[in-house]
Each structure stands twice: as C-alpha cells, then as structure tokens.
Design goal:
Blueprint lengths: L1 E6 L4 H13 L3 E4 L10 H13 L5 E6 L3 H7 L7 E3 L3 H11 L3 E5 L5 H13 L6 H13 L3
Parallel strand pairs: 1-2, 1-3, 3-5, 4-5
Helix pairs in contact: 1-5, 2-3, 4-5
Amino acid sequence: MRIAVGSDHAGFPLKQHIATYLSEQGHAVTDLGTHSEESVDYPDYAAKVARAVAGGVAERGIMVCGSGAGACVAANKVDGVRAMVAHDTYTAHQGVEHDDVNVLCLGARVVGSAVAEELVDAFLGAEFTNEERHLRRLNKVIALESD
C-alpha cells in the first residue's frame, strides 16, 4: 500500500519508527516531514499528508503530533480526507470499516511504539464495508464538504 506519513516535532520520533515499520512490511512510504525535533507547526505537515491522500499520491495517510487532535483537525480541512484520532485498535479499524477514514492521526505523547504498530496494523488492515447504511452516512459527510 502507498502510505504518506508526516509529523510535527513532537511526533517526529514515533513517525520515524512507524515509517521504518511500514517499509519493513513492504509498504511504499512517502515521508512528508518534518525531519527533526526542531519546533514546527503541525497544520503544515497534516496538510501535506492530507493532500497526498486526497490527490491519490497515497492510498492512506498517517500523521503524528503530540496528542493527535490538532493533526486530525487540520487534516479534515482538506476535501476528500476523513481523518480520525485513534488510540485503541477498535477505533483504528472501525473508522475505516464504517466511515471510510483514510488518515490516521496518532498522539506520540499518548501511545508508545508498540501500541502505534498495533494501531497502524488495524487501520491498514481494515476496508470500508460498503454497507448501505455506511454508504448513506458517508455520502452525508461528503456532502458537508460542499456546504
């Protein structure tokens, strides 16, 4: 799978770990930065990840900041992106299965590397169900982008 990864300074070490983990599993990883722990603004990197997913450069995105919350807010501003914060495996797969989430946001100050690997596996292993009730709800979410 083609996966775009990004982070701010707080998420940099965990992003590095996740990028290596994904590459070792055979995924094509595009690292959109940041590339150090020097202070940066999370919206800049969340936008890069979100635009890569919305533009078809990546099939899914993973963004890491301190809590995951700010990155999620920023990524969701890009049309075509449905981002979520997940700190448990149920949410990580259920968001994809029911809501067709395409960007996972993680909090590096909330989860460690072992839990992050489990979350990434759950997120990437899930597929949208295409059930009528989920399609109906997804279409309502997509319609909000044009309001």
